Amino acid sequence: EIVLAAVSGDGRALEFVSKALQSDKEVVLTAVKQNGIAIKYASRELQEDMEIKEIASSINAEKNEERSIWNEALIENDFAPIPLDEYK
């Protein structure tokens, strides 16, 4: 339960759990549903699981779309970040 709570709050916590839990489909699914990047911490077998791959891909696509929309809004409203070498 503790591990499920941890990975549901931050899927990347999967990196720090035991190998046995990185091979537990319920734990990995929970992590990947929170953050698709978590798939890279799953066991090799679960990294190849079609259900997990599809969820990770979908979650990552959603996050990329959100990031793109946010970046466009920043640029449209003149809130684009200033490159560090131009900041004085």
Radius of gyration: 17 Å
Major beta-sheet overview: none
Note the beta-strand portion. Answer: under 5%
Which stretches of 5+ consecutive residues score pLDDT under 50? none
The coarse silhouette is: elongated
Structural class: mainly alpha
Tally of alpha and pi helices: 5
**Mean pLDDT over the full residue set:** 84
* Order of SSEs: HHHHH
Straight-line N-to-C gap = 49 Å
Helix content: 55-70%
The number of E-state strands comes to 0
Give a verbal description of the structure:
The protein is mainly alpha-helical and 88 residues long. The protein is built from 5 helices and no strands. It has helices at residues 2-9, 19-22, 25-34, 44-47, 50-76. Helix 1 (2-9) runs parallel beside helix 3 and helix 3 (25-34) packs parallel to helix 5 (50-76). The longest helix has 27 residues, at 50-76. The model has no long low-confidence stretch (mean pLDDT 84).
Question: What are the SSEs and their pairings?
Answer:
Blueprint: H1 2-9, H2 19-22, H3 25-34, H4 44-47, H5 50-76
Helix pairs in contact: 1-3, 3-5
List the defining traits of the structure above.
single chain, 88 residues, mainly alpha, 60% helix
Write a compact overview of the structure shown.
The protein has 88 residues and is an all-alpha fold. It contains five helices and no strands.
